Each structure stands twice: as C-alpha cells, then as structure tokens.
Amino acid sequence: MNHKIYIQDVTLRDGMHAIRHQYSKEQIQSIALALDKAKVDAIEISHGDGLAGGSFNYGFGAHTDWEWLEGMKDQLQHAKLTTLVLPGIATIHDLKKARDLGVESVRIATHCTEADIAPQHIEAAKKLGMDVGGFLMMSHMNKPVKLAQQAKIMEDAGADCIYVTDSAGALLMDGVADRIKAFKDVLKPETEIGIHCHHNLSLGVANTIVAMQHGANRLDASLAGMGAGAGNAPLEVLVAVLNKMHISHNSDVYQLMDAADDLIRPLQLRPVRVDRETLSLGYAGVYSSFLLHSERAAQKYGLDTREILEELGKRNMVGGQEDMIVDVALDMLRSKNEA
Amino acid sequence: MIKIIRLSETLEVAVLVGIDPESDGLARARRMGIETCHTGVDGLIEMPEWKEIKIIFDATSARAHQYNWKKIQAFPDKKMIDLTPAAIGPYLVPTVNLNEHLNVPNLNMVTCGGQATIPIVAAVNQVAKVHYGEIVASIASKSAGPGTRANIDEFTETTSKAIEDVGGATRGKAIIVLNPAEPPLVMRDTVFTLSKLGDREAIRRSIHKMVQDVKAYVPGYELHQEVQFEEIPESNPVFIEGLGHCHGLKTTVLLKVEGAGHYLPAYAGNLDIMTSAARATAEQVIA
Q: Which of A64, A111, A121 sits opposite B180 (nearest CB)?
C-alpha cells in the first residue's frame, strides 16, 4: 500500500529543547502560521518532553502546554494540530485536555523497549477520535527485529503510524533501512511508518530519505533543524531534496527557507549545529535532549560536557533521566578530587 | 512474606493467598511450611486460621483490592494494608504520618516512588514550607510488572497527590522512567523541592535524619550524593503550572534504593521499599 508523503513539523516541540522551552505565545503563533502557509501537513506543539514536561527535571516552560495550544486550531488552514505524550510524564487527563483544545493527532512515545506502557494512552487517544502515532525513542538501542515487535504492540493497541525515532541521532543509513524493513515485515499494510531523525552525525536528511525509500511516509523535520542536540532533519533542506527527487508532497520550499532564516535562526540561544558536543551525542548514542542540561552541569561543576555525555552513554541512560546528569557530574567531580 | 519471616519479631505469617495454585510464590510458601490458599480472599475467610489473622497485606491490583476490601470490611477486628494503587484508605508513609492513622482499618502504601521520596519532601517541609515537590523514579524494566505497565498513569497521579497530602507540598509532580539496561540498574529516585528560602544547614540535617529513619526499615536506602541547593531568585523565577511564577530555594536530593534481595533481586529496590514500608506499618499497627 502506498501512503502519501506526510510532513510533520517539530520546530515547536523538539525545537523547544534548543531554547529551553521558552517560546513565547507570539513566537509559537507566527511560526505555526508560517508553517501552515507553507503547507506542512502537521504541526506538533508542546513542551520538548511532551505534554506536562514542564519540571525541574526537564526545564519549566515559558508557558503551560495549554497556553501554547490555546486558539491554534482555529488559525490553521491546512496543517493538523498535533502533540506529544510520554507515558510516565503526561497522563490521559493531559491528553484529554489537549483534545479539548483542538489537537487532532498525537504521538505516544516510549523508550524503544518499553512499548507496553503505551497501549492505555493509544487506546484513549483513539477513543477521543484522534490520529495516533507510536514513537519508539532511542531506536538505535534496539535491534531491528526486536524494535519491530515493539512496533507491533503499538499497532495492536490501535496506532495508525509507528515511528523509528532516532533520538540520539546515532543511526547510520543501513541501521535506518534495516529497522524500516523490519517494520514492513510485521506491520499491517494500512499502518503507516514514520521517521524522526536527529542531525548529530549530519545524517538527518539522508536518514529520512533512506527511510522513505524503504517505505516510511511520515517524515519529521523542523525549520533550520530547530531541535534537541544538533537538531532534527532541517525541514527546508528535506523539502528541497524531495523536490529534486520529484517526490510529490504539499510543502513550499521557498516559504520554508524564509521561515527558517527569518523566524528561527534569530531565536537560537546556542547555534543548533553539529559541533564537538552535539557530535558527541550521536557518537556516544546519547539522548539529544541531554545537551543543554549537560552543558549547564559542566559549567556549574567545572567539568567537560563531552565527558559527561560519554559517561551518560556508558551508563545506558535513557530519555527522561535528565536527573542523572547532575548525578554523573557529582560522581565525576568526586573522582577528580580524589585523584 | 519472606521479610516478615526473616526480620519481624512481632509479626507471624499465617497464610499466603493467591489465585493460581501453580504460582511460584505459593509453591515457595508451601516449601517453607506456610499455609497457602489459592482461591483468593473468599477462600481465606473460610480457613481455620482466619479468626487469628489481624492484618491482611494486599499486593494484587487496584480492582482486585476493591473486591477484597468489600469482603474484609465485614470483619472489624482486621486491618488491611493496601499495596495497590486503589487508595481506598489514606496514604501512608511510615516515617511521616503513621501516627495519624494507627486506628484506620485500610491503609494505602502510595507507590514505590512515593515511599522513596515523600519522606524527603516532608523533611524539607519541616524546615521550610515546600511550594512544589517533584520526584523522578527510575526503575529497572525487569522490576516493572504488567500491572505497573498497564497503569502507569496511576503511578504518576497517585504519587503526585501523595506528595501534596503527605509530603506537604502545595503542588506535587511525579515522573517515572523505565530503564532496560542489562545488568539491570538499581532503583534511583530524585527529589526536587522549591521551598521558602530557609536555613540550608537545617534542611540538610533534616534530610539526613529522614534518610536514617527510612533506612531503619529499608537498609538499602541511601543518599547517593550530598544534598544540592540553588537559589531561584525573584528576578529570575520559574513558571510552575498551577502556581505561576515562583522563587525560593531549590533543593535536589539524589537517592538510591537497593533491594535486600530476599525474594526479588537487589536492583528491584522499588519492590523492596513497598514491602518494607508495609512491614514497618504492620508492626506499628499491632504494637
């Protein structure tokens, strides 16, 4: 079954990580309207760690999710309003609240081995009449066949689409291809397959294209790559590549280029790019959202960011364990002082 | 069961109740010479041992607990300690509010993350009013059973509410993360509080004392790092849902909970702290 290419923008969700969840209501609105005008298919809005992510652990937002979402639905002409839920952080109550604010589609995200904490949320979202994606984070940490078994759990619960989510930007092109192929082997033909990349090894666009060539049709990207770590697949670049490949889609490349440079780049507190720190995320296979938290801990305790990131990788920390960054920093400080 | 047999001087295990005659737990009890019953609460109340029984621990599920409590409620001389998220009775954390509820017939043990962290929230609150208490529980995937996985919202919602009701925070928030690393990682819990600016040394002492109090019934409970403080100034406040812009003292407490390894492996501190808290509660209730 051939599904139509569906481009989901994550500038206003994953991009939150790059500005410590500090988008103003006006910024959310102007960026969402520019994306809508350029005809992306879906726009995801929430705290970077999903609904209810505002916390000491992940950083408090400039607004609540409800403030960010409120009124957006009525202003979008083309794009679906979507959001993100991480079971263990957000609850079905939060999901219902988002639905009441006009959110039509949601991704339910779990670590790549823990899909069985998602069925309750997937079923609840379906009952609310929403389009539902299952989002298997840190996909590089699970082998293709096992990852596909996790995808099946989400499909059985009712998800319309399952994503290979390369949260650490650590997958190479073969790794993406093998995972999408494994999904194809076990999922029903009507279930869509999605890809969410991080650009830490500069493979954001390439990996997205590889995924598409193996059957993924829902592609995540963000303006100027605005996202955790070295960012996501840059949306304007992805769309330019799709155009050159003569792949049919709805988005306008020039409007996206303008939005990326005029609206997004001026907001980046820290340039979103591949550099020593963000490359280390992809190289060590560490959750991209750990970046700013690790940089802050490094500064506070006089340590090296890259060493903190590498240690987090060695300890097999998964998404959501931001509290362990300070723990690792204090352990490193202690061994440094003892040496 | 094993904790009570090995450690308790005042409690005696009368019957282990299950619903699967083939279960590993019931087989183990039989080998240890403990009476067993595989027909649930209905079978239990028909047993000759029933009239001697004072306390029933319920580690089934929220739904099963409601059924069990309906049956047991009819016996006013019995007390139930509820280890499920049903929370029919008040939340109980032994080091914080046991004395308030000694005569209540049904006590709820909150959640594993709640037992590990609420004492710390309360310890800060004893010195400086806690506006906001947030906890992050990281548990090994292997120690999270199908019940926990199918009802993960119950963990976040029950724990958040108990951070407020028992811990004393104006607003509570709970986060749970499952980590599948092999070998499994020992349970970690982190507590963040935002309180009024208070005497840091007094807060630190209060937390250390509380850790010792919990350690008395959960030997593997410890502070993994020294308490961390940071002032959130009025000029650069944090925006907390439900509270608005807040400032004050941020206190971070990084805990580690290792299980005793009695029946469950040592990494499963989350399960150990629940059974240990239930044992400590039962000992006080009958004392």
A: A111
